[in-house]
Design a protein that fits this description.
The structure is a single chain. By secondary structure, the chain is mainly beta. It folds into 2 domains: about 120 residues, no CATH class; about 160 residues. The chain is about 10% helix and about 45% strand. It contains 4 helices and 12 strands, in the order βαααβββαββββββββ. The strands form 2 sheets. It has a 9-stranded antiparallel sheet, with no helix packed on it.
Length: about 300
């Protein structure tokens, strides 16, 4: 959400707005009650209700264990595009720059004044489906045992607004989705407008895979377990906060664990984040992890 500040700027703007007044107005806007009191706020929406169903079974002939889950969230809060929210917050200054009125939350700025709370989210019902398959493998590649897990998930927002009416926030969207604002008289003149595909979608999905082999007594009494994990967001961008999927994003983990007679366990892994360009906010967060446990 956003809190729009006080009244002094509005009074100055209402009294002038000509070229001769620009310097005085700019100075006043930078120091008056509006500039000092406009602020962002963190909200914790209440009364979010969720119901779910789950099942698990085993396909006898294949030995594959299946698990599935469906959840329905009533009135889930979904973040609107933060750029549009900022434009609305600037509405008290629209007399100086009419381009401010070209926004989705209050077109023309007729309903936004000072000393006003601006909600930064909408509420929609959200469905999520996921299916997981687990297969315990016998001896494979000279390992004593292997395990393979695969999961597919899908998120759907019911009654999602059209992107032409209201864009919901997508990661890495730093300018407006309105090409007018990229023009000579726009609020980010010369900086390209975001493509509509970069904002949140009604439906998004992806899959995850993981596998592990266990070699008992590979090095004396030490068991060794190499493993991998792979995730791919296939289509769509889930609305935030904390959306599940960003189309094109993927992550790869390679690791190895060791176990000495259930007394000392060590694990080393490397994770790489790839794909989706600047919309993947983890793309520069590759990391190495090492864990050492001792039981007594």
């Amino acid at each position: 959400g956003f809190g729009v500040g006080g009244n002094t700027a509005a009074a100055i703007i209402g009294a002038g707005g000509t070229a001769a007044d620009v310097g005085a107005i700019a100075s006043a806007v930078a120091t008056d009650q509006y500039a000092r009191t406009a602020n962002y706020i963190i909200e914790y929406p209440e009364d979010i209700k969720r119901v779910g169903l789950s099942f698990n079974t085993e396909l006898q002939k294949s030995g594959v264990a299946l698990q599935g889950e469906y959840s329905f969230t009533h009135d889930a809060p979904l973040q609107v595009d933060d750029v549009e929210l900022l434009f609305q917050a600037l509405c008290p200054l629209a007399a100086i720059n009419p381009a401010i009125g070209v926004n989705q939350l209050d077109p023309g700025c007729a309903n936004t004044g000072t000393n006003q709370y601006l909600p930064g989210f909408i509420e929609r019902n959200v469905s999520q489906v996921q299916m997981t398959a687990t297969k315990v493998l016998g001896p494979l590649l000279k390992a004593n045992q292997g395990v393979l897990i695969g999961e597919v998930g899908l998120t759907h927002v019911h009654n999602m607004p059209s992107k032409s009416d209201l864009r919901l926030n997508g990661p890495g969207t730093f300018t407006s989705g309105n090409s007018f604002q990229a023009g000579a008289t726009g609020l980010h003149a010369g900086k390209a407008a975001e493509n509509a595909d970069n904002f949140a979608d009604a439906t998004s999905w992806g899959f995850r895979m993981a596998g592990r082999l266990t070699y008992n007594n590979l090095i004396g009494p030490v068991n060794v377990s190499p493993r991998f994990a792979f995730s791919q967001d296939v289509s769509g961008i889930t609305p935030g906060p904390g959306g599940n999927f960003v189309e094109g994003r993927r992550a790869i983990t390679l690791g190895v664990g060791t176990d000495y007679q259930n007394i000392i366990q060590a694990d080393l892994s490397y994770t790489s984040f790839q794909g989706a360009g600047r919309h993947n906010l983890l793309r520069d967060r590759d990391f190495v992890a090492f864990n050492l446990n001792y039981s007594f």
